[in-house]
Amino acid sequence: MRLSKAHFKTLRETPNDAEIPSHVLLLRAGMIKKTAAGIYTYMPMGLRVIHKIEQIVREEMDAKGAQEIRTSVLQPGELWEESGRWAAYGPEMWRVTDRNGRGFCLGPTAEEIFTDLIRQDVTSYRQLPLNVYQITDKFRDEARPRYGMMRSRNFIMKDAYSFDKDEAGLDKSYKDMYDAYTNVYTRLGLTFRPVEADTGAIGGSNSHEFTALCEYGESEIAYCTSCDMAATVEKAACVDAKEETCEMLEMEKVSTPGTKTIEEVAAFLGISEDRTVKALLFQKYDVTGKEDGIVACFIRGDRALNMTKLVNALDIPEYLIQFADEAKLGSIGAVAGFTGPTGLHDCTVIVDSELTKMKNLVAGACEENCHIKNVNYGRDYKADIICDLKTLKEGDKCPVCGGVIKHARGVEVGQVFKLGTKYSKPMNAVYKDENQQDQLMYMGCYGIGVSRTFQAIIDMENNHDDNGIIWPMSCAPYHVIVTVVKPGDPVQDEVAEKIYDTLRKNNVEVLLDDRDERPGVKFKDADLIGIPVRITVGKKAGEGVVEYKLRRDQDKTEMSVEDAVKAATEIVNKERFGR
Ligand code: ATP
Ligand code: MG
Prior knowledge:
Helices cover 24% and strands 29% of the residues. The chain is of the alpha+beta class. The site of adenosine-5'-triphosphate (ATP) has 17 residues, from strand 8, strand 21, strand 24 and helix 9.
């Protein structure tokens, strides 16, 4: 491609609403353009990268025997009614109505449509296992679209669905996809870690997220410094404090004026925060938006509540719960800042398992400016649900080996799920076994955020610097840029054209910067768009000498035209498949 003929525009300034390097650089490099909040256009150079990522995904999926198909992004609401998700999915789903009033959605994911396809086509055990996938636009009306392609409202996802006869078959399909994902992210130059994950709105029994590690990521993972335990903080199990066997003391009401927070109560009474009980009150809603009761959660004072564990315990999606309005607290006997488990009524009480093992704690008295000492589970209050409600923090004990936990940030670039019969059961996706008996299919589903990955690649430490993007060869929009210092100079033009032609004959993808611009502008642009190899044709072109430089290195080397072409071809061939 000749840059003089390309639709190509870079920006010198940092765009206003871009906060993280990858978003800034994609906009500055002219690879994407914002259309509306969370909605972007891929410009020519960006789209080339997207195509390369998609191709790598395809190759790794196909290598595991998966087959590509493509469904419509418009999905009939009836299929979602069948699985029960039409109501449960919530406001993230873009719903549309056709001229006859029939409900559709713009697919946020596609479990229903794939389950429907396969239940129609597969009748016998002989047709299983199967794995089908697509790479299409997905739509989610995210509450907080941000960071460009990282959390957009229209994004590209590869979604695959496996269908097996039984659980053992699913285990194998899951492992295949886990391995395929590992290959994809390795080829794309990501530093990543697969971690155990919650199953969220997709459901199922087991799940792993693939997290590209970088400080700007929205995901937080907890990992053990001694064993290989790694999980999202939403998912990570916690170890309860040891069971206390001391005697229960008499409850005693104490005056604690103005002590609304755990910190204040602990300081006032001269105790540590882990001897107190923290109360968190939530309002539940049903799917029509009507209030559906108040939930009171109790955890140890120094712990943080884990919202994912809470909504899982209640078996509701997260959008159906929010902090309770203070004005409503009276209806359950609660008092803001002084709520404890002993004085409540007419609400669902959920207690962290740890509290049931501890003795003589301090809790709110459900009375203004008062707390109660020596509160004990069982004797003084009971729970509707007891479970692990807390977040595994840095420095906590590893739930597997007792080692020390650390946290790291990252970007969730993909997730794999063991669905089991979560969809095949309500949608009756069955096959006939060897004995002509109907059996439910065992399903898995596997997503890669193609457009999010596109951006996450740039956020990797090695893939950007102050001057711009440094694409890995495997997904660079072009492999080589040939920069002509003085276009119009017959010697420089001739040498540049020769390099351009030879490299293209060698199957190398080349960008020829033949624009009538100052050399400084061209070098800046070449750095910004991150082409891995630059060959500069300048003053010494007459002697057959050019400058060769790799984007990732500082050094520039003068060499003959032939050597430069050879070096470029060699490095491209060595790195283009990213293995
Ligand atoms: P998140 O927790 O970040 O909202 P998710 O767990 O809801 O994502 P999945 O349903 O697992 O997402 O979708 C598969 C993949 O699609 C994710 O791993 C992610 O890479 C990508 N993805 C999901 N939502 C978005 C989005 N709003 N913008 C860009 N990519 C997304
Ligand atoms: Mg996910």
